């Protein structure tokens, strides 16, 4: 036995012996019928149990067929998929065009009420041409469609789903993926086993580990304690400070990877929360931008690998122009701008947040240093999202992961679309983003997004902050390489 192995508890080595990898999630699986969940945990579960028609290769950036053998744009409003033959669902039901047509039409129907309507809202209808050919008709040109077909649209078995309904399906989901559900215990976790008959004809491989046990452990310190006791093999989203301490001990593999998530401070530029809110004045918005030392906060609470950004998007996303007006940290300039706006003595404002309290407190402190009293309110995400929708949030420190879709249509376009969550309400800006979302020429898309992002920066509508990284801690017996989309692909795990 090696010196490293001798340091590990015997139970940690046993996981390899019984071919079971044990994983901790901070949140429980809120719905196994993943069309009715927006949580990352449900997406990861879905990636293991279900397949989609196409898949994004995180290394090459190309779209490759999964359940679809091939695909093509017939025209700007029509996608055609030729399906693989001989594939079966976990319950033995044969996969064909009926499953695809049912899945697309059922979940694109507004009456179904999916958790994230934007993921299916571009679909007009799906049409069966023959047993293994499907055409999807779009409401309008939407060049990012394949990104949503991948991460947001797993294919369900039409016969089984219609027999058991959403509630029954959530209790016992059936897919074509590399893993099948063995058991699920609400509030506790779930167990998956390798699907022996997985087709593996597309970009995915057969599961390399026989069993995956996922437990819900909300407290990170409890997660780490179980890691050291050998009860857990894999941790995800470990805070930077704890990850560094674990790495220093040398007992476990600690890996850091970039993600699609970025942070920002939203500002009410159009008076949605009241006509007298100070942030309707561009000088106040610019002052807030100058008042926040983004690098200092990043260095204090996050990884140095996190990238300071100038635009409201992630640089990994298509169309994310960063060559825009940037606001350097300059508290003196911030005070001058506030005085010019009539706030030489400062003002009070509500600042909301739902995570990263130390960073939120630092932002509030920096605003206080230029005369702005930001009363910090830390809420649960769902509660804050509801207040944003009700237009009750003048400023907020928040983050956005874009559903791991590598396209500006999944980030900037969602916040400045003229809807209830758009606190800028600039028709010219909305039109530029709409053009980028619906133009099929890549160069034209980039140009539209570039103009939009420069307009956002010039008007200082928001404060772009930094990108996020994710820390993964795992047993030295486990081999796994994370990807920027933050999807923990269980089928890519293997024992060394």
From TrEMBL:
A single GO molecular function term of this UniProt record: peptide transmembrane transporter activity
PANTHER family linked to this entry: D,D-DIPEPTIDE-BINDING PERIPLASMIC PROTEIN DDPA-RELATED (PTHR30290:SF38), PERIPLASMIC BINDING COMPONENT OF ABC TRANSPORTER (PTHR30290)
Q: Mind listing the UniProt keywords for this protein, alphabetically?
A: Signal
- Any GO CC annotation of this UniProt entry: ATP-binding cassette (ABC) transporter complex
Note the Gene3D superfamilies from the entry.
Dipeptide-binding Protein, Domain 3 (3.10.105.10), Periplasmic binding protein-like II (3.40.190.10)
Q: What is this protein called?
A: ABC transporter substrate-binding protein
- Family that this chain belongs to: Belongs to the bacterial solute-binding protein 5 family.
Give an example GO biological process: peptide transport
Question: Where does the record place it?
Answer: Periplasm
- Solute-binding protein family domain residues: 63-419
The family database entries (InterPro entries) matched by this protein are listed as:
Peptide/Ni-bd, SBP_5, SBP_5_dom
Annotated organism of origin = Paracoccus alkanivorans
């Amino acid at each position: 036995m090696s010196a490293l192995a001798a340091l590990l508890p015997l139970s940690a080595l046993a996981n390899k012996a019984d071919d079971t990898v044990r994983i901790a999630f901070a949140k429980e699986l809120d719905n196994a019928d993943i069309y009715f969940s927006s949580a990352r945990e449900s997406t990861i579960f879905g990636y293991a149990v279900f397949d989609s028609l196409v898949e994004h290769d995180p290394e090459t950036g190309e779209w490759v067929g999964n359940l679809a053998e091939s695909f093509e744009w017939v025209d700007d409003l029509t996608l055609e998929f030729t399906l693989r033959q001989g594939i079966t669902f976990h319950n033995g039901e044969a996969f064909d065009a009926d499953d695809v047509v049912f899945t697309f039409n059922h979940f694109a129907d507004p009456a179904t009420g999916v958790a994230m309507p934007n993921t299916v809202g571009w679909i007009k209808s799906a049409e069966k041409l023959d047993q293994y050919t499907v055409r999807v008709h779009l409401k309008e040109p939407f060049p990012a469609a394949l990104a949503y077909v991948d991460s947001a649209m797993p294919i369900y078995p039409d016969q089984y789903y219609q027999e058991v309904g959403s509630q029954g399906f959530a209790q016992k989901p059936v897919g074509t993926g590399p893993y099948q559900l063995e058991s699920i215990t609400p509030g506790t976790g779930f167990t998956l086993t390798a699907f022996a008959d997985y087709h593996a004809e597309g970009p995915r491989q057969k599961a390399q580990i026989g069993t995956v046990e996922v437990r819900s452990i909300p407290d990170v310190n409890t997660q780490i304690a179980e890691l050291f006791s050998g009860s857990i093999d894999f941790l995800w989203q470990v805070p930077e400070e704890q990850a560094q301490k674990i790495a220093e001990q040398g007992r476990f593999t600690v890996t850091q990877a970039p993600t699609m998530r970025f942070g920002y401070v939203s500002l009410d530029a159009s008076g949605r929360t009241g006509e007298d809110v100070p942030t309707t004045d561009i000088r106040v918005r610019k002052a807030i931008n100058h008042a926040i030392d983004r690098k200092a906060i990043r260095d204090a609470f996050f990884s140095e690998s996190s990238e300071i950004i100038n635009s409201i998007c992630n640089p990994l996303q298509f169309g994310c122009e960063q060559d825009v007006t940037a606001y350097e940290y300059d508290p003196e300039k911030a005070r001058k701008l506030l005085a010019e706006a009539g706030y030489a003595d400062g003002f009070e404002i509500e600042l909301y947040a739902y995570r990263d309290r130390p960073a939120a407190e630092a932002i509030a402190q920096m605003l206080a240093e230029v005369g702005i009293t930001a009363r910090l309110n830390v809420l649960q995400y769902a509660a804050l999202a509801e207040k944003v929708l009700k237009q009750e949030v003048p400023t907020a420190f928040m983050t956005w992961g874009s559903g791991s879709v590598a396209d500006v249509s999944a980030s900037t376009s969602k916040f400045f679309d003229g809807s209830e969550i758009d606190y800028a309400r600039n028709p010219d800006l909305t039109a530029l983003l709409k053009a980028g979302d619906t133009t099929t020429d890549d160069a034209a898309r980039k140009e539209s997004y570039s103009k939009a992002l420069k307009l956002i920066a010039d008007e200082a509508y928001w404060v772009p902050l930094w990108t996020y990284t994710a820390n993964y801690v795992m047993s030295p017996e486990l081999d796994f390489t994370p990807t920027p989309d933050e999807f923990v692909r269980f089928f890519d795990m293997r024992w060394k």
